[in-house]
Design goal:
heterodimer; A: about 240 residues; mainly alpha; Four Helix Bundle (Hemerythrin (Met), subunit A); B: about 220 residues; 10 helices
């Protein structure tokens, strides 16, 4: 069985309907464990106090914000190459979620930054590139809404997503030339030395897993909704004709 | 006359002659630079500091506002469909149109920038780097703009959407270009910004026409 069989909208809807409750349940479980453990059962940081706990929302949200765009890049590419409608619809479904996650990362960062850096906002490379990413999401969503014909909209937004990916990456490195930053290094990486301490790390993993599962559940749900909406519209058009 | 040359001449004539609006971009550039001291205040030191960024932002906006005439009018009256059937590949048509756009919008800005920079008290040492940066960067603005204009050509209310799509794509060009000029104003060498700006422009000039042509094909379907 090949993965392309899921590109059949009917099969996709059927499989999503079977697995969505499980994915949602797993998301709720992981989020509860991660957030409750993180918020109530980890010690305060000796310098940052209890404000450090905002990383249980901030880091996963930022992680999803970037990877949602990457997912849109891949699904847009699949749409352009293989013309599977489910792929284009999944990209469309992911965009508002990615935009909200970008906003959450920016807002939680501002709330954390006020007591720690002494400012709500700083034109730091990471912050700035997240703001740029947010604008890319807005443009992408606006283009979907502006074009009436669904396939044209899917084509144009896919092109925009590919171009945007190149420029988002370019902007990410351009801002490094423009300003040095305040933001600390990566909280997560394969290189264990710069990771956060273990007490904070384990609940963070649960929290990230929870956010990823939540993202998957929301994308599947929104894609299924979109497929059904299209089918409904097709049926109504057939009745009129 | 070869088709390519004929198209280029047509585009430039349309832009320069009555109603084409080639001078409008320049006038817009002028008025933004005039408004800035009125808003910021006449402090010479402050103006010298913001001059590179201000000139670059004014150039971006002037380019952006003239993008709608790249494909819109030709799409509305059907010329674009005829052009798409011509012996020239669509990619070539896009490249020629972008070139004409740069010759009538970008190049005048490059030439006007040093004069306006004087009024903003930009140090003399920064003048050559400002011009060099604009010379390297404005072709990229036209080529990136062609992508945005091609994507939004079929839309009825494309104007605001076009700026939302295109301005984020201008970010790297703006950063590198303004950096070159402001580093020169501080007496520093251009550093990494200069090759990055040239590289961005080359990338966009090479790939932009293909992307824009793909978007046009979707819209001409």
């Amino acid at each position: 069985m090949s993965i392309w069989e899921f590109a059949n909208p009917a099969r996709f809807t059927r499989i999503v309907s079977r697995f969505l409750p499980w994915i949602s349940g797993a998301a709720a479980l992981c989020l509860s464990i991660g957030l409750i453990w993180g918020f109530f059962y980890t010690p305060d940081d000796f310098r940052q106090g209890s404000t450090v706990k905002i990383i249980y929302i901030h880091v996963p949200a930022a992680f999803i914000a970037i990877n949602a765009w990457f997912m849109m890049f891949v699904t847009s590419l699949i749409w352009l190459i293989r013309r599977h409608h489910v792929s284009a619809l999944a990209a469309r479904a992911a965009a508002p979620i990615g935009a909200v996650m970008t906003l959450v990362a920016l807002l939680t960062g501002a709330i954390w930054g006020q007591p720690m850096w002494g400012t709500w906002w700083e034109w730091d490379p990471r912050l700035t590139s997240f703001l740029i990413l947010f604008v890319f999401y807005l443009g992408y969503i606006a283009l979907w809404q502006a074009v009436d014909e669904p396939d044209t909209a899917a084509d144009l937004t896919s092109i925009l997503c590919l171009v945007g990916s190149v420029f988002a990456l370019l902007s990410r490195y351009a801002v490094l030339i423009w300003n040095q930053g305040l933001h600390q290094g990566a909280s997560l990486s394969m290189d264990a030395e710069e990771n956060v301490a273990d007490v904070f790390y384990q609940p963070l993993l649960f929290s990230i897993a929870g956010f990823v599962l939540l993202f998957v559940a929301l994308v599947l749900l929104r894609t299924r909704t979109e497929i059904r909406a299209r089918r409904l519209r097709a049926l109504m058009l057939r009745q009129v004709a | 006359m070869s088709p390519a040359r004929a198209l280029l001449v047509r585009e430039i004539q349309l832009a320069v002659r009555a109603g084409g609006g080639a001078g409008l971009g320049l006038a817009f550039f002028l008025i933004v630079v005039l408004l800035a001291p009125l808003g910021i205040g006449p402090d010479q030191v402050l103006l010298a500091q913001v001059a590179p960024g201000l000139l670059w932002i004014a150039a971006l906006l002037a380019c952006l506002l003239s993008l709608d005439r790249l494909f819109q009018a030709d799409h509305e009256d059907g010329t674009l469909d005829i052009l798409a059937l011509s012996p020239l590949p669509l990619e070539g048509i896009v490249a020629i149109k972008a070139l004409a756009h740069w010759l009538t919008t970008g190049l005048p800005l490059v030439l006007a920038a040093p004069v306006l920079a004087l009024t903003l008290n930009l140090p003399d040492a920064a003048q050559p780097m400002l011009v060099l940066g604009l010379l390297l960067g404005t072709p990229a603005l036209s080529a990136i703009g062609a992508i945005g204009a091609a994507i939004t050509v079929g839309l009825r209310r494309g104007g605001l959407l076009l700026s939302l799509l295109v301005l984020p794509l201008y970010v790297p060009t703006l950063i590198f270009g303004a950096q070159i000029a402001s580093r020169a104003a501080d007496g520093l060498k251009a550093g990494a910004s200069l090759p990055f700006l040239a590289g961005t422009s080359l990338l966009v000039l090479a790939a932009g026409p293909f992307v824009a042509a793909a978007a046009l094909r979707v819209n001409l379907r």
